[in-house]
Structure formats: C-alpha cells, structure tokens
Amino acid sequence: MRAGGPGGARADVGADTGTGTDNTVTDTPGGRPAGQPAGQHAEQPAGQHADPHPGRPAAGGTVKPTQSARPTQPTQPTQPTVRPAPTPAELRARTAARYAEIHYAVDTLEPLPGAKVYLDAGHAGWHSVTGIVGRLLHAGVDHATGFAINVSHYQTDEDNAWYGRLISSCLAYVADGGDIMDCPDQRWPRLRAERWLEIHVLDEPEEMKHFVTDTSRNGRGPWTPRAGSHADPQPWCNPPGRGLGIRPTTRTGDPLHDAALWVKTPGESDGQCLRGTAGPRDPERGTVDPEAGQWFPEQALELVRFARPSL
C-alpha cells in the first residue's frame, strides 16, 4: 500500500497480477459510489436516460405521493372522570384506616428515646371538648404524651390554656370510667365548668395528659371580619392585622402546658383566600395570595409589626 494522491489511500490490488488495474477505494465526495472503479460511469438501462429533473412529472404523467394524504380528524375533548360519591360504608372504612395509621404512629414513635408525641386537637373555635376527646381516644392518645392545640391558628393564649385544661380533664374523667358526654364544654359558663372540675376530676397533672400550643400567629387573637363583608369570610385564611405570639418556651407556668411552640412558620401563606368570590384576588387584601405554604412577605411584615409581645 502506498500513499495516493489527493483522493486518499490507494490499494494496488492488481500489482501482483501484472494487470496494472488500479482499483481505487477512496471516497469521492459528490462523485461515484464507493467501490466503483475510477473513470467508470454508472450506466442506464438500454433506452432509458437519466431524468435531468428528478421529482418533476414526466410529460403527460403525474407524481404519485408516496403516502396518501388523510383528512385530519378533529381531536375529541377528554371527558372528565366522574367518580361516584363514597358510600357511608366506604367513609367509615376510610376513617377507621386513618385512625389505625395514627395509632400505629403513636405506638412506633412514643417509645423512642427522647420522643414525645402530641396529637393535633384543633382549637377552641372549632371542635367541642366532647367531640375532640372522642377522636383523641380513637387515635391512641392513651399511649401518647398528650395533644397539641391551635396549630396554624390564632386563638389567644388564655383560650388555649382553658381549652387544653378541659380536654385533659375530660380524658382523665373518661379514664376513670366517666361518661364523655358529661364533660364540660368550652362554651359553658366558666364558673360552672370550674365547679364541675373540682367535683369530678382530681387535680393531678402528673397523671393527666399534657398539651402544647402553637403561638406563632396568635399575638392579636383571631380575626373578626365585618358583618356581611364577605359571602364566606374564611377567618382562618391569611387574616389581616395578625401578630406573632409569645416566643417558643417550655416555661408556661401551667403544669399541664408543656410548651408554647411556633409550629406554623410565620409568613407562610394559608392559601389563595377568595372569601366566596370567583377570585383570583383576595377581596380583603386586594392581592392574589400565594399558594398554601408559599412565602407571603406582606403577611410576614404584618406579623412582625403587630407582634405581641413586641419584638
């Protein structure tokens, strides 16, 4: 093999045969196909000439498309899947499964070293004492340290402490064989409820269930919208003029109240609050609120500005 000219490498295959034939195997851009001897041209079959205008129809002829054109079918809109409403039996099964999951979490986490489990018990403006005590018992509060109240809400420290005491006392009363429906509710007159507790529940904090409270946004208490101002006021949803509450601490001065915590991150949005309108603006604020869990700078500034105690 020797180096050839500009065409590339050449192999003198015919040198040994004495034929002198030079079989070139170089690539020729724009030239003959690879493997065709130099100086040789592709021949057309007899009586046929190369078409100087490929793709143009011959005289009197037509060009047949390689693929027949098909009319475009309009896209049919996807029909939404309509699921039937769950039956009462299905709802009961789901509720039972949820209780079983929470019970499993309590039994798994509470025995761990240094772990204390508090089950969410809503807040005083939502569940009655008897209603939430029944739920806590189903969820396994007997095996937990206690319960948490006012998570992500705005109830005052005083209301939280009283609500927590009533729940803890009712749990103790039921544990001693009492009827849950006899327990005082947070809407009872205060003196009447205190009298009931003195008669029916021993004041033994070490034997009772304790609680923690969320004070991240309760410095000014819950928001009371103007009467008739909104079709659905949603007072829990990014209410204006709220403030930070007391700083997280375990020094509460109440033997049943283990800690004040900032469970909800101050400044996180509660969601897009439409208050009974079509949206997208929050009619109380005049802005489009961030999605739930997203940072809401205007609300964060309000919480700092109206903090109680002040920063």
UniProtKB/TrEMBL annotation:
One annotated GO biological process: cellulose catabolic process
Chain intervals for the UniProt region annotation (Disordered): 1-88, 213-240, 266-289
Keyword annotations from UniProtKB, A to Z: Carbohydrate metabolism, Cellulose degradation, Glycosidase, Hydrolase, Polysaccharide degradation
Sites where the protein binds substrate: 123, 126, 236, 264, 268
Ranges of compositional bias, category Low complexity: 9-40, 65-84
SUPFAM superfamilies per record: Glycosyl hydrolases family 6, cellulases
Top-level taxon: Bacteria
EC number, UniProt record: 3.2.1.-
GO molecular function, one term: hydrolase activity, hydrolyzing O-glycosyl compounds
Catalytic site positions: 270 (proton acceptor)
PANTHER family with a match to the protein in the record: 1,4-BETA-D-GLUCAN CELLOBIOHYDROLASE C-RELATED, PTHR34876
The family this protein is said to belong to: Belongs to the glycosyl hydrolase family 6.
Entry protein name: Glucanase
Protein's organism: Streptomyces sparsogenes DSM 40356
